[in-house]
Amino acid sequence: ALLDDGPKPLKGRRVIVTSGPTHEPIDPVRYIANRSSGKQGHAIAAHLARLGADVTLVSGPVTIPDPAGVEVIRVESAREMLAAVTAALPADIGVFVAAVADWRVATSADNKIKKKEGEGPAPLALTENPDILKTVGHHENRPRLVVGFAAETADVIANAEAKLARKGADFIVANDVSPATGIMGGDRNRVRIVSKQGVEDWPDLSKDEVAERLAARIAEAFQA
Ligand code: CTP
Ligand code: CA
User: Fold this and answer.
1) How far out from the chain centre does Cα 51 lie?
2) Which keywords accompany this UniProt record (predicted)?
3) What is the mean pLDDT of each run of 10 residues along the chain (224 residues)?
4) Is there a contact between 189 and 205 (Cβ–Cβ < 8 Å)?
5) Do the bridges between strand 30-33 and strand 23-27 make them parallel or antiparallel, or are there none, so unpaired?
């Protein structure tokens, strides 16, 4: 195929990519989730595969099609995503694009929670989810290159630098998702690559162009 004609700098390299949201059940019919289409993570998985990588894409619930040339593992919750990612280790490279829900309901109900006449809703007790990127960034089988994302609405660089250190990542792909940018749910993205070496400002690109450029940047960093 046309797509397969280019150079293969990641040939034989194992890559894990997370994408999409996670769904955290409240009861059998309701859940808590972040907004995420999966477009950016799926495009990154496809472009890494194009560069010859052996890609495992661990995806939360999305409506977009599976990318070509990639093994897809579908999960619902953050805990399922963590289990699928650690089961896919060891890997050479990990790219954590998923918009993981930070909290889940402490005890989800086995049956649908019913409204009760004259009573307000019962409060939901939440508990923190595992941090998948942070777990892998500090894992005994840590991939040689670990890339995370940071969707921020303020103080983008400072927050991304803090995440780089806290999560044990080599790169944080930072983007400003404040409503005025129109990035959430759209097809475009403007990112900055934050690493110990400094900050790279990328222009406004389509999500597919960001993915292509990031896959190339990852291949370059991996070979260095
Ligand atoms: N991430 C993850 N597991 C989580 C939360 C986040 O793997 N439970 C990953 C995301 O996939 C992303 C990076 O960590 O690559 C940053 O996610 P983000 O939500 O921006 O960071 P948090 O540490 O959750 O901080 P906050 O939401 O408070 O900004
Ligand atoms: Ca978060």
Assistant:
1) 19
2) Decarboxylase, Flavoprotein, FMN, Ligase, Lyase, Magnesium, Metal-binding, Multifunctional enzyme
3) 77 98 97 94 97 98 96 98 98 98 96 89 94 98 97 93 98 86 75 95 94 97 90
4) yes
5) antiparallel
Q: Would you give the DSSP letter of residue 29?
A: T
For the chain, how are helix, strand and coil distributed in percent, rounded to 5? 30, 30, 40
Pairing of strands 126-128, 103-105: antiparallel
Which ligand 1 atom sits closest to the C-alpha of 150? Answer: 20
Using CB distances shorter than 6 Å, the residues near ligand 1 are 18, 78, 96, 98, 100, 102, 129, 131-133, 148-151, 163
How wide is the angle at C-alpha 167 spanned by C-alphas 22 and 91, nearest 5°?
Answer: 75
pLDDT of residue 102: 97
Q: What is the CA radius of gyration of the chain?
A: 18
Q: Is the dihedral of CA 22, 144, 219, 214 positive or negative?
A: positive
CA 11–ligand 1 middle distance (angstroms): 29
Provide the pLDDT for residue 177. 82
Which residue among 34, 149, 170 has the greatest number of ligand 1 atoms within 8 angstroms of its CB, and so is best to mutate? 149
CA 101 to ligand 1: nearest atom: 8
Q: Report pLDDT for 1.
A: 46
pLDDT computed for residue 116 by the predictor = 86
**What per-residue confidence (pLDDT) applies to 178?**
76
- What is the pLDDT, as a whole number, of residue 5? 78
Ligand 2 midpoint to CA 97 (Å): 11
* Closest protein CA for atom 12 of ligand 1: 149
